[in-house]
Amino acid sequence: MRLPRLTLIDLVIFAAVIAGVAYVGYRVETVLIYKWDWSVIPNYLFRWDEGQGSYVPNLLIKGLATTIRIAIWTMLVASIIGIILGVARTSNRLFPRLVSWAYVEFIRNIPPVPFLFLFYFFIASQIMPLLGIDEAINGASPGTLAVAEFLFGPANLMTNFAAGVISLSMMSAAYIAEIIRAGIQAVPKGQREAGQSIGLSRLALMRYVVLPQAIARVVPPLAGQFITLIKDSSLVALISIQELSFMAMEIAISEQRFFEVWIVTGAMYFVVCYACALMFGQLERRIGVHMR
Amino acid sequence: MTLRDAEAALPPPDGGRRIQWWNSKPFDIVQFVLLSGLLAWLVWRGAETMDYRWQWHRLPQYFYEVIDGELLWGPLIYGLMVTIEIAAWGMLLAMIIGLVTAVLRLSGSFAGRIVATVYLEIIRNTPLLVQVSIFYFVLQPILGINNPIWTGILCLAFFEGTFASEIIRAGINSVPKGQWEAGTSIGLSRAKTYIYIILPQAIPLMLPPMTGILVNLIKHSAILSFIAVFELTTEARNLIGDTFMSFEVWFVVGPMYLVLTISLSTLVAWMERRIRRRR
C-alpha cells in the first residue's frame, strides 16, 4: 500500500479535528466537571443471574433483540403491502393507480411521529382487539408459547409489539411501493411487448417476464430500506414499545447517566446498521456479477 | 402498400371494442371516492364504538383568539411558526455542512476524506432519535447551548447535511468531464472553472433534491417534540394532554403538515419536469 501524500490542507484539517476534540474534552473536564462512570453499562448488557448461575442478557441487549425483531417482521409485512401497492402503481387501470398513489403520497408527506401517534392510538383500541392476540396467548401450549416468544418477544408485550409492527409497516410500505414501482418501470418496454406478443396473460407476463427482472433491480434498495427500518424502529419508542431506544431512555433516567447510556446506544445501533450495510454491499456485488 | 396503409387496415389496439363503462376513467374515480368515503366512515365508526365525543367547536380557539378586539395567535399557529423556523435554519445549515462535506470528499485530501467518511457513516448508521438524544443530553451541556431549539436545528442540519453533501457531489460529478477540460484549456483557474462553468450547470440539477431536503426537514422536525422544542407536534401533544381531543387535534395537525410538504413536493415535481424538458 502506498502511503497517502500529506499536504498542508491535511495538516490543517487534522489540527481542526484535534482542536475540536480538545475543546469538548476541556468543557467536559473543567466546565461541567463530569465524572465518567462506564461501570453501570456492562450490567445492563448482561447481568449475572443467581438462579441460573450464568450471565443472561439484560435490558439493552433485550432491547436490541426487540429492535431486530421489529425490523424483520416489519420488513416482511411492509414488503407484502408494498409489492401490492407497487404493482398497483404500474397498473393500466386508473383505480389501483389512484389508490396506491394516494396512499404513497399521504405517507411520504406526513411526518412519521404524528402518524405513529394517531395510528397507534387508533389501532391499539380498534384493530388489536380484533386480532385476538391475548386470547391466543392464553390458550397456547408452553411449547408454542416458547416459539412465539422467540419470534415476537415476551408474551405480555406481544399485543404492543404487533401494534408497533403494524404502524411501522404502514409507513414503510409506501417507500417499498416506490422501490417496487421503480423496479418494474425499469424493465424495458420491449420485454413486456415480447411477452404480450407470445400471448402471455397479464398475470403470466408479470410472473415470468417482468417481476424476475424487476426483483434483481429491487434487491439493493430493499436492503437499504431494511437498514432504514432498523433506524426508524427507534421511533416506536415514543409509543412505549420496549426496543433499544426505549430501554436507553429508561436506563438513562433511572441511572442519571445520560452521556454513557446514549453513547453506548448509538454505538450499538451503529454496529448493527454498519454490519448490515457491509453485508448487503457484498451481496450486491455478487448479484451484480450474476447480472452481467 | 405503405406502412400507414397497413396500420389503417389493422384494427385499433383495443380490438375495436368500445370501452365498457366499468373500464372507464370516471368509474375508476367514482370507485376511488367511494373507497375514501368507506375509510372515513370506518374511522368515524371506530370513534363511535370508543364512545368518543367529538368537540370540533373547541378547536378554533387554539388557532387564534380575539380578546378585546385584539387578535392573539394560539399554540397551533405558534407551533407551525417554530416548525417553519426550524426548517428554514436547518436548511441553511444543512447546505453549509453539505457543501463543506462535499468539498472535503472531492478535494482529494486524505484527511478531508477521512473526516467526511466518518461523519457520513456515523450519521447514516444511527437513528435520528438517537442522534437527537445525543445532541440534547450530551452535546448541549458540553457546548453550552441554552436553547433546545438550537440543539434541534443543529442536529437536524447534521442529519440532512449527509443528503445535501450527496446531492452536491452528484450534481458536480454529473457535469461532463469535457466541461472541465474546456475550462482548463482556455486558461481558467480551478476556482473560475467552478464559478463560471461547473456550478451554473450543476445547480439547476441540485435544486429539486434540495427542496426535497426541506420537505424532510419539516417532517423530521416532529422528532424534536422528544426534546421539548415547542414545534407543531409538541404543541399538539400538549393540547391533547390538556383537552383529550386526540382525534380532532391530529386530524388538524396532520393536514397542516400535509399542506406544507405537499406544496413543496409539487414544486419539486414541477422543477423536475422543467429540467427534463430543457435537456
Word description of this protein:
The complex is a heterodimer of chains A (292) and B (279). Chain A has 292 residues and is mainly α. Helix content of chain A is 79%, strand content 3%. A two-stranded antiparallel ribbon of chain A has the order 1-2. In chain A, a hairpin with a 4-residue loop joins strand 1 (46-49) and strand 2 (54-57). In chain A, helix 3 packs antiparallel against helix 11. In chain A, 33% of the residues are buried. By secondary structure, chain B is mostly helical. In chain B, 74% of the residues lie in helices and 3% in strands. Chain B has 10 helices and 2 strands; from the N terminus they run H-H-E-E-H-H-H-H-H-H-H-H. In chain B, strands 1-2 form a two-stranded antiparallel ribbon. In chain B, a hairpin with a 2-residue loop joins strand 1 and strand 2. Chain B is globular and about 75 Å long. Chains A and B meet through helix 1, helix 4, helix 5, helix 10 and helix 11 of A and helix 2, helix 4, helix 5, helix 8 and helix 9 of B.
Could you provide a short overview of the structure?
The complex is a heterodimer of chains A (292) and B (279). With 292 residues, chain A is an all-alpha fold.
Strand content of chain A: under 5%
Question: How many domains would you count in the coordinates of chain A?
Answer: 1
Shape of chain B: globular
What's the average pLDDT of chain A? 86
